[in-house]
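Handout, section B. The chain below has 340 residues.
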Amino acid sequence: MTYNPAVALLLFLAVSVLAFFLFRPTKGWYWLLKDRAKTDKKELIEDILKYMYHSQNEDKAVSVSDIARTLKDEDKYILETLKEMSEVDLISLAGNGVKLTEAGSDYALRMVRAHRLWERFLADKTGYEEADWHKLAEKKEHDLSLADTERLAKYLGNPQFDPHGDPIPSSSGKVASIQGDALSELNVDAVARIIHIKDKPDIVYKQIVAENIHIGSVIRIVEKSADRIVFHAEGEAFVLAPIVASNITVSVLKKEVVPEENIARLSMLQDEETAEIIGISREIRGESRRRLLDLGFVKGAEVKVDLPNPLGDPKAFLIKGTSIAIRQHQASKILIKKQA
């Protein structure tokens, strides 16, 4: 085999280029893959801490098996991670049982604070749908440093509760308690206000969101059985399974408080009907709320359907002489009183 200098030179150049892309400082494929692995490990640790915090908050014992089943990662990887967490005193291991240490609990609280502040940001400052808040916050919470979290809290005015009614831990780790009863525990004819909606498990939360059930709504129980709970709120009847209703927390109102039966949602306004706007649900916040107010959806304004949409969404309403089209999920959060 004869030696060919040109081929050798080309081979050398190819190897050099490959080595450059693999190992160039900070941006080489080797370093990027290494950083990705570190990021994945950090996120897994934080997910484990949050899961344990929420479980212990509900007085549920946590086992290695529970963590592996919930986080759906490889058992070997979970075990390695738990061992590392134990070595740095974030958790304590006793057989199959796992408990948070004081340091682990503090770390978990920081994650919960970042998550709930980001949900508050999404609700108040963006146009994202309510069903997306939790999922987006689950990703962003891992990116926020402690300094970022505090800047976000200051920007939002240091809110005490997230959009679901969950308390946001303070910077010192204090967490307010939720004072209320599960909707599933109320008796027929009880009147209450919705103050909290659990965002876990996902399947139950999405069902509640799909039903357009809002925090702040005054409800009245009209039927209760082992299979279903029926309640009225803002002119609509809602039917939930008890297991779903148990994820909604309410504050029971005094017996003399009677919800106005003629209050409804703008989404229920029919063609040829006229109504007076009496308010906007507190679930519409920040820029989204200001936009609706700027468009004329203010208390006392007269409104009626202007251009019906055969598909139902969006629908145009005539308000203050102007035709304004909004989507059904927005209209469902504007409260009206129908006129005779």
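Note. Residues 30-38 have pLDDT under 50 and may be disordered. Compare this with the example in section A.
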